[in-house]
Amino acid sequence: MSNLSQWQPWWLIIPAAGFGQRMGADQPKQYLTLDSRSVLEVTLSRFIGLPGLQGAVLALAPDDALAPALLANFKDFPLHYAVGGATRSASVRAALRTVQQHCLNDQTLVLVHDAARPCVRRADIEALLTGAFAAKDGALLATPVRDTLKQANTYHTVQATVPRAGVYHALTPQAFACGLLAHALDFAEQTGCALTDDSSAIELLGKAPQLVLGHADNIKITHPDDLPLARLILQAQGQWHPAQAPLVG
Questions:
Q1: What is the 3-state secondary structure (H, E, C) of 184-196?
Q2: What letter would DSSP give residue 33?
Q3: How do residues 38-68 score in pLDDT, each as one tens digit?
Q4: Taking the domain 4-237, which CATH number applies?
């Protein structure tokens, strides 16, 4: 993109304090193996070399010593660690406090990205950064809903068909000014609102983040079937690093 050199400094936040119960694995999903690397290593690799990146903060479970050991030789940008909380929002807020210790400007942009989204395309990250720096209320990657949506009742029968016009899947990264996101997460906690993404907190303040079109292959590894799918996507993207031994899902 022609305006990469115009980007201001920004930070990356990766909440990684959850275990991922739906994977049914014996370890957090960010440490499962994709190719010769863990999911977390692949995710971090998608941000290497992006202009303006000052560092990344990983919010980890209190007893998690694996990430620092796994990433001990990571040299591509500064890594910092924060103790995550019981919810995703608490982990992001903890990481934000670490960012705020390193930059005094509340307007500094932060990108929040799921540790379990290793297939995000570099071009999509660049498009998000460009959109976020131009938007007043931040921005997020999203894709239009393609399938017909059904609203179910308590008996799991169809209650209604939901119109899909103008409906999007929210993806990550999502990008907001550091101070704005911190205020929004604090407000959501004070009002008792449960959040599933960071844009929801911004929306609670009456603001309207910009939707930036991304690609549907930016999947989140949530269920066991997602791991082999992520491997196929990495191969199709030309991002496959063959392992020395056969992979075990």
A1: HHHHHHHHCCCCC
A2: B
A3: 999 999 999 999 999 999 999 999 999 999 9
A4: 3.90.550.10
